[in-house]
Specification:
The structure is a homotetramer.
Chain A: E1 15-20, H1 34-51, E2 60-71, E3 80-90, E4 94-102, E5 108-120, H2 131-138
Antiparallel strand pairs in A: 1-3, 2-5, 3-4, 4-5
């Protein structure tokens, strides 16, 4: 019933970004708290978008309508980790990303997904993804089988 | 293809807890950042478990192996919000929760799920859910249809 | 050389607000991380200002130019705590707050200060504190001896 | 009365560490929230200590008894910034650090201090700073005039 654990490697992601962990990423159990992975996701995605022309204060902004994560292995500050990013679907207004978190040895530690809908920053109504953003997203399209979370 | 938006109300959750938002819950878009909802989930679940006998430094601890959230309406500091909590599955070692976030007027703003596996705090191997915790979880069992995220 | 530990009580603060701790406020040492106290400060101050007319997206916004905290006793999630707020100085553009964090039994756990400068939200140049905000701040003036941090 | 704004440069700090900003470091005003600087401080200090032998789960742990920050210029995600670290006092049990946050162009954006007391992790009573930690701290001693916050 439960899907098999994902076995993605860094090669399954067109973009790999190193992430610095922080002291307060660790919770009382001595590992990075489950919440913090989503801060990694948000950061990797938005840094990529900003590098490719998204304006934080622009007319079209991406808002998250869905996110999910499966946690496979613990990580802990002060580990240095990598995040892999790929795009699995691009619609008129929305895009679905998948993010893999890797330990420095290459083990997959978590796999998540994240759906952005682009909206007008004033009205919050969906808009067509701006052309420069769409091009950047298309460059991250992956033919890997979609993750299950 | 996409599941219909959930329409749960506070009555669909055996436990309702008020949550205080914080200034830094809001991100640059002036609403509670998607990451923060998971901090609400973690807090509501763990407060309930601690109130019912979970010892943070005990032999059996709950670690998150999966979480997800669908975001339906924006909320923003300084809103006061409610979190509803229910349990949809209890196994030997694991439990699946669903959490609804409600605006003060009762509108469902987000619906998520969260899976805990109870493990030995030293070896991190799964253990049977302790009896007092199981009883507390059973009290939150809900016959509502499982949410789809 | 070191100033004597402060001995303020809840009576030394014109405003007392209850604060909910969160699971991820605790760090690996099992107590609320030093960073999180500043999130409490920010929240208590801004909630008060918003309740008294500050518009988050308004023309005049308060930006923090200085903050400090002395940590006296540990607190930990799921403690319920109180924050006391008082104003010790009001200038043309700036205001200095002091915040006390109290355990439920009334013990002072931390004492901090926080300085806001009100600026034009577009130019970020200092402006005169708006009249409605000044009135609200004046209501929190305290004749208690200023704390030393 | 107010001390002159500090004018430290990166050369005034024996250790410089690059820090990655995160999406959720920015608050509604589009800049790194005042709280987050303390997460940077905690991270830089603890990474250094761990690199030099501090064991997070060891017998002697450093707990923060005082911290402060003066904010001089705004920074914002996705800026890459540097943190400078120096030690200004080492006692039997305690150490006082100063941290400078620098923009990529070298401008000083914030200057803070942070005091650790080393305590027994079980009893939380002060202990003598372990020899390997003391040696590492001594290597960061600075003769620069102490900052004023």
């Amino acid at each position: 019933m439960k899907p098999a654990p994902p076995a993605d490697t860094r090669k399954d992601f067109p973009l790999i970004t190193e992430i610095q962990t922080r002291w307060d990423d660790n919770d009382v159990y001595g590992h990075v708290n489950n919440v913090v992975y989503y801060a990694y996701f948000d950061t990797v995605i938005n840094r990529y978008l900003i590098d490719h022309g998204l304006e934080i204060e622009g007319a079209a902004i991406g808002v998250c309508v869905e996110s999910a994560c499966r946690y496979l292995r613990e990580i802990a500050f002060p580990d240095r980790i990598d995040a892999g990013l790929r795009v699995t679907n691009i619609g008129r207004s929305s895009v679905r990303y998948e993010i893999g978190i890797f330990a420095s040895g290459g083990e997959l530690c978590a796999l998540g997904h994240f759906v952005h809908v682009f909206v007008d920053s004033a009205t919050r109504k969906p808009v067509t993804i701006p052309q420069n953003i769409r091009a950047a997203l298309t460059a991250l399209r992956s033919s890997s089988p979609a993750a299950q979370p």
